[in-house]
Amino acid sequence: MKRSRTEYTEEQLAEMERKLLALPPIPAAERKLGSQAGVIRLAQAIATLQERGYSIEQVAESMRGVEFEITTPTLKSYLLRAKEKNGTATPKKPKKRRPASASASAQTPTTAHGHAQEQPPVVPSGPVATPAKASQGQGRGAD
Questions:
Q1: pLDDT in tens, the chain (143 residues)
Q2: 92: number of Cβ within 10 Å
Q3: What pLDDT score does 143 carry?
Q4: CA 27 → CA 30, 31, 119, distances in Å?
Q5: Which residues of 112-121 are buried (b: 16+ CB within 10 A; e: fewer)?
Q6: C-alpha triplet 53, 58, 62: angle, nearest 5°
Q7: Is the separation of the CB atoms in 21 and 14 below 8 Å?
Q8: Which residues on adjacent β-strands are paired with residue 110?
Q9: What is the dihedral of CA 92, 93, 97, 103, to 10 degrees?
């Protein structure tokens, strides 16, 4: 039994390359494609179906109906990859930041180490009754 080699000389690799490149091409009708390559091949037909109003779920179901086994999430992923490869994917828009809500301000922010940060006191808006100053004799203990 031969042991497999893990090292080759430049001369051996050049000979292997020559022999590999001498192999005849496989006719296109006999070439087998995987699911991802199949989706790329059918991308224009899929786009046409979507232009006709078919949802991606309906397209995936129709593909299964013609014996192309694929799930909707896989179809979405393959189409996105094909668009990115061709440079036709639309860039994602940055998410708009919503203004902080009252519930968000009620949460205590933490530092990078998970410790609670000290928060400034919440100051209500609008007119508010203020407590009388102790120096005017109206404060506590001024009886």
A1: 566 668 999 999 999 999 999 999 999 999 999 999 999 999 999 999 999 999 999 999 999 999 999 999 999 999 999 888 777 665 556 666 666 655 544 555 555 556 555 655 555 555 555 555 544 555 555 44
A2: 6
A3: 47
A4: 5, 7, 72
A5: eeeeeeeeee
A6: 115
A7: no
A8: 116
A9: -50
- Residue 90: phi and psi, rounded to 5, are -80, 130
Torsion, Cα 76 77 83 87, to 10 degrees, reads 150
Residue the block writes with tokens 């000389």: 9
Q: Indicate yes or no: pTM above 0.70.
A: no
The beta strands (E) that lie in 33-101 are given as: none
Q: Residues 29, 33, 37, 40: what is their CA dihedral angle, to the nearest 10 degrees? A: 30
Q: Within 13 Å and on the Cβ side, how many CA atoms surround 113?
A: 2
Taking a C-beta distance cutoff of 8 angstroms, is the pair 70, 63 a contact? Answer: yes
